[in-house]
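explain this:

___
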Amino acid sequence: MRIGVAGVTGVVGAYVEQVARERGHEVVGLARSLGVDLTTGAGLAERLVGVDAVVDVTSIATQKRRDAEPFFGGVTRTLLEAEQGAGVAHHVALSIVGIDRVPTGYYQGKLHQEQVVVAGAVPWSILRATQFHEFAQQALGFARLGPVSLVPRMQSQPVAAVEVAQALVDLVEAGPAGRAADLAGPEVHQMTDLARRVSQARGPHRRVIAVRLPGAAGAAMRDGGLLPVEDGPRGSLTFDAWLAT
């Protein structure tokens, strides 16, 4: 099978490429560094020739709805239009568990992305996953004050990014499935605790201060709004095992 991967240069995208190739699939990377602009569609049609399915794991570094919605909506429409023209039979999108319960700007952008996929003409699958183990390290850079990192207090059930990639390739191989069961990791943690452990184990040994984010979004994060509410697939790689590698 020939699989296009939008966002192939990111953390999950790189794993999707690795897993797909290990299973004998051909991977076509869709990224600006490979000559494709997903915001304008430049170079996209040529790359989709002969592609059977597209996996979208694109992202944007923002928490503002006015940036997130246009990005996710625009990239998704561009992909779907090009996929329809190229005869791509399956669009697989990665989303996030709890985005309909935690009203942040980024999550509203992801909700908009899901709506565009569902309304599109290309048969689809959507996988919602919890935060990745790697999120704990990223959180150290969200807000810095000298040697101190301010990390939001939130419950999380993190999953290994490689296991998310495996689930995405599973969906590609199975064919359009609509909304798949939510994927989460094996354990529930406080994100501030995970950030401290990453900082101590890998550096830069920053002091982590837990912050209570204000408003409905902050309360939802603290109360488990980002945790799965139904039974579903669970990753097997614990945070401890991930950190050890």
Remarks:
- The chain has one domain: 2-244.
- The domain at 2-244 is CATH 3.40.50.720 (Rossmann fold).
